[in-house]
Design a protein that fits this description.
The chain is α+β, with helices and mostly antiparallel strands and 702 residues long. The chain has 17 helices and 25 strands. The protein binds zinc ion (ZN).
Length: 702
């Protein structure tokens, strides 16, 4: 049975799988008959529920692994355009593209990752973290200079293998009290997977095979050793399946099983509360599901996600309160989410989208990508900070501990080693995202999984190559236009993801409306004979919605489609260190932030006016002035709500709350554009049941 169909079938019996299928009203004739187009498939069968459909056009899962409902296209198949391309170009010109200038871990000279005998400096996670995204950045932009420079490193890694299969830094081989520290190699495996995906270089598969043969000689206890490897070994399981799908060597599956059985037990729940461990570790049972084949594994990944978010993710933006570790009692939106966590969470969601075929994971990926990742970096992508918080009204360099767990500078922007792990690991956020816009489907079709402007070249149906140009300003626009270019007509299913927030999606084919049951959290599937010039127009109308967060004192957040909104706060940027070329920057508020919203009692969403800026999208929409959409709202200041003695925004207090201040009209901008941000608002109330804001711990005046 096709795995997507299996998911759909099982989805009906699983509460957490809200996803559904499709689509066409039986008997409805589709497409303009005058142009001779074959009619769309009618009826409710569009995701094939029959025998093991696998897609021979791309490398999906090989038996006995469960078939892949959605398969990653070879890197380079998708050319990002629009705002996403601009993020990648800024990344290339910014910190990631030039990290060798500022990071001592990325100095080639004497680097243990570049030495044939694995001797030298910087042999831990930093270099692979950076190279993982840096190489992919070159591939998705088709940037010859980056590709060439990444290859210099990769060639050196490939030349470093010992007779027994170990490669790279020799110190890691005995890095844990004489036992191997296996974590940095997990990241380098990702580097090599992408390199192979882009180049097909014939050295990669034998190299990885030899390494995993060495790993296979290790006793099971070594897979449960060390703090980082034990928790993150699911990363290697994914690589092992990737390799197995390309070589068919069955001992690899025994190795994957042994790793699963000896590493941290993520199937039984969450046992470690470190931010990045959570963001990448929680998915492990979902990854193992394709081998374990029991629904409980896939469900465990969902359960882990829900456990984390129920306890610590009670605010908008897609992240959770884990400013190093999650801490009981520290669940206010002023808590932070590490930049490594942002990109690892996105990577997890991308993987789980493909494994499960469940569009909910793609929704979650967009949530992080639009609302959290941009604000983790300066608008020019030349610096980042460690912690991004939904409520974060001042980004100074001073210590915020114990308000946030980590001591030292955490909020201001820097390109330097003060944010050592994130500085390198942030590299893969946007490149990986761009690689996942389109996916091949198990039934030889194509799936528009994440929406952004791009052009994709892919093989479909019986193997015909075609091109689809996707034009859209999404998430700043609600229309996605797909133009098909094909040398000859070809029949295949085209899957379009309908996000969870969209109740009124509509589809046009060659200008004519198609009657589809486009329910939230589903795929619309258009199966027909496609020909050159066919055009699909998908509309995803967005509406304002207001969410009340009971677990955070009944504060509210405001969404418009996939975008969450923050108060627009005036910014004063101030350099405190670094160089002219690589400044370190603090950001201070120049306008008040301590507002509660005045909401319509009958319909809170009606309290907001949507203002769309006319004309072309700005190249960098993730800035206060470049944001293409604003909301206007009524608000009152709460004078007692101030920054605490650490400079952190005061914690939320129960809503509704009284304010005797005048009503003002305030502007809200997308969270991703707001580096100074207030995204969780108290609600202003009237009458006897309304509380008073209690002043506490004041140092600074607003
Ligand atoms: Zn980090």
């Amino acid at each position: 049975m096709n795995a997507l169909a299996r998911w759909v079938r099982h989805g009906r019996s699983l509460v957490f799988f809200a996803g559904v299928v499709l689509l066409l009203t039986a008997g409805h004739r589709l497409g303009p008959s005058s142009c001779g187009a074959a009619p769309l498939e009618t009826g409710v069968k569009v995701v094939p529920a029959s025998a093991a459909a696998t897609n021979p056009l791309y490398t999906g899962n090989r038996e006995p692994l469960l078939p892949s409902p959605l398969i990653k296209l070879p890197i380079g198949s998708i050319q990002p355009k629009g705002w996403l391309r601009h993020q990648l170009e800024l990344e290339a010109k910014g910190m990631t593209g030039r990290l060798e200038e500022v990071s001592r871990w990325c100095k080639f000279e004497g680097n243990a990752w570049a030495d044939p005998q694995g001797q030298g400096h910087s042999g831990w996670e930093e270099l692979p973290y950076w190279l993982k995204g840096y190489g992919d950045l070159g591939y998705v932009l088709d940037d010859p200079a980056i590709i060439k420079n990444a290859r210099k490193w990769i060639d050196a890694v490939l030349a470093s293998q010992e007779a027994d299969g170990w490669f790279g830094p020799r110190a890691n081989k005995t890095g844990l009290k004489g036992k191997p520290d296996l974590w940095p190699h997990m990241v380098m495996c990702n580097v090599l997977q992408s390199f192979y995906g882009f180049t097909g270089d014939e050295r990669v598969l034998p190299f990885l095979t030899k390494y995993f043969k060495w790993l296979n000689t290790q006793p099971g206890e070594n897979f449960g050793a060390g703090y980082w490897p034990r928790i993150r070994f699911g990363d290697n399981i994914e690589t092992i399946y990737w390799l197995y799908n390309r070589t068919g060597e069955s001992w690899l599956l025994d190795l994957a099983r042994r790793i699963h059985e000896n590493m941290e037990n993520w199937t039984s729940g969450v046992h470690n509360w470190h931010n990045v461990n959570l963001a990448q570790g929680f998915r492990e049972p979902g990854v193992y599901y394709v081998q374990g084949k029991e629904e409980r594994f896939l469900r465990a990944a969902e359960n882990n996600y829900e456990t984390i978010m129920r306890l610590y993710g009670q605010f908008p933006g897609g992240g959770f309160a884990g400013d190093e570790n999650c801490r009981p009692g520290y669940t206010d939106p002023r808590q932070g989410f590490e930049t490594c966590g942002i990109v690892e969470f996105m990577h997890s969601f991308e993987m789980l989208t493909r494994i499960s075929g469940n569009p909910l994971w793609a929704d979650r990926c967009e949530e992080m990508a639009f609302n959290s990742l941009p604000a983790a970096l300066t608008p020019d992508l030349k610096a980042l900070h460690y912690l991004t918080c939904p409520n974060q009204v001042q980004l100074d360099k001073e210590n915020k501990s114990p308000g946030v767990q980590n001591e030292g500078t955490m909020f201001s922007y820097s390109p330097f080693e003060v944010y050592r792990c994130c500085q390198h690991n942030v590299s893969h956020g946007w490149p990986y995202y761009a690689e996942e816009l389109w996916l091949a489907t198990g039934d030889r079709g194509l799936c528009a999984s994440l929406y952004a402007a791009n052009e994709v070249n892919a093989k479909v149906g019986t193997g015909t190559s075609l091109k689809v140009a996707e034009e859209t300003d999404y998430p700043f626009g609600d229309t996605v236009t797909l133009r098909v270019s094909a040398a000859q007509p070809v029949r295949f299913p085209l899957y379009l993801r309908i996000p969870r927030w969209c109740g009124k999606a509509s589809v046009k084919l060659n200008g004519q409306s198609v009657r589809v049951a486009a329910k939230p959290l589903s795929y619309v599937v258009l199966e027909r004979e496609w020909k050159d010039g066919d055009t699909v127009s998908l509309r995803l109308p967005m509406q304002v919605s207001v969410k009340k967060w009971e677990k955070n004192h009944n504060a509210v957040s405001v969404d418009y489609g996939p975008l969450s909104f923050s108060l627009k706060i005036g910014e004063r940027w101030s350099r405190y260190g670094g160089t002219e070329a690589w400044p370190e920057l603090e950001v201070f508020p120049t306008t008040p932030w301590n507002y509660g919203l005045v909401l319509s009692e009958k319909n809170a969403a009606k309290s907001f006016k949507v203002v769309k800026k006319p004309g072309m999208l700005t190249v960098q929409p993730f800035t206060p002035d470049g944001a293409p959409i604003e909301l206007r709202a009524q608000a009152k200041r709460i004078p007692e709500w101030r920054q605490d003695s650490l400079g952190l925004v005061g914690k939320l207090q129960p809503s509704p709350v009284r304010s005797d201040q005048p009503v003002e009209t305030v502007t809200l901008i997308p969270m991703g554009a707001a580096r100074l941000r207030l995204s969780m608002f108290p609600v202003i109330g009237q009458g006897e049941v309304v509380g008073e804001w209690k002043q506490e711990n004041i140092r600074q005046e607003n």
